[in-house]
Amino acid sequence: MSKVIHIIVTVLILASLILQILALLGNFNGLRSVYIARLELTNPPSSGGFFDDLLDKATNTISDSLPDYFTLALFIACEGKSTNETVCTPPAFGYHYNTTGILQTVQNQIPDWVHRALTGIQGGVFIPSAIFCFILLCYNLYHQVSGHRAKHSYGCCRKIMIFLVSAIAFLFCLATFIIQIVIYNMLKSGVNKVKSSLFGGLIDDVVIIDTKTGPSIWMSLAAFICLFFVTVLLCVSVCCIGGGRSRRTGEEGNSYEMNRV
């Protein structure tokens, strides 16, 4: 039973690591569909009539100069057309990038303190989260191999160490999910404020802006759920099963000594 649990734990850690790496590489080539949030810009429906035709012409003129969508990932922002024309910023900490068009205009509007905060979050939470998950995977494999070769129960220090590593990896992964939810809500709130302030709230008559969650958020959710089950299974495997094996080993040793006598 312990061996089965160890296999499940290894698979869950590996799955969490892969999901976190995919989230880190969102909007890179080949992973354009992995992002935190997506802003879709569409034309409002027309009800016909002379004035509506004039509004449609003005709307079409504006929409021709705007992309159909924006996507925001951890290190890259992209804009694209429905014709599969996609322009992305270079990957950068804090979204400090040099590009052209609307993306550069958006970057120029970001305050310096936001750039610094984003840099700290990217380098201090998301990257360490993947690193700790990788360390947990390596230590778990070492934990299994060394325990199998030694054929004795795990020591107290080793138990504490693997619990500590798993707890740190879980907390970092949970933080990545929470941060992405906060970023999405802040982006959605900011878009709604802009919509209400432009043209007296009549911006929806010109262009409809819809904010949607991206796969990166749900990948982080699945990743920290995997690590949660890892922590629980490690507790069962190391404390309960390991303790039972230790007692059985001691009983067998006592029986052997008594038989010798």
TrEMBL record:
Keyword line: Membrane, Transmembrane, Transmembrane helix
Lineage top rank: taxon: Eukaryota
InterPro entries: pH-response_reg_palI/RIM9, SUR7/Rim9-like_fungi
Residues passing through the membrane, by range: 7-25, 121-142, 162-187, 217-241
Signal peptide, first to last residue: none
A matching Pfam family: SUR7
One annotated Gene Ontology cellular component of this protein: growing cell tip
Name of the protein: Uncharacterized protein
Species of origin: Mucor circinelloides f. circinelloides (strain 1006PhL) (Mucormycosis agent)
Taxonomic placement: Eukaryota, Fungi, Fungi incertae sedis, Mucoromycota, Mucoromycotina
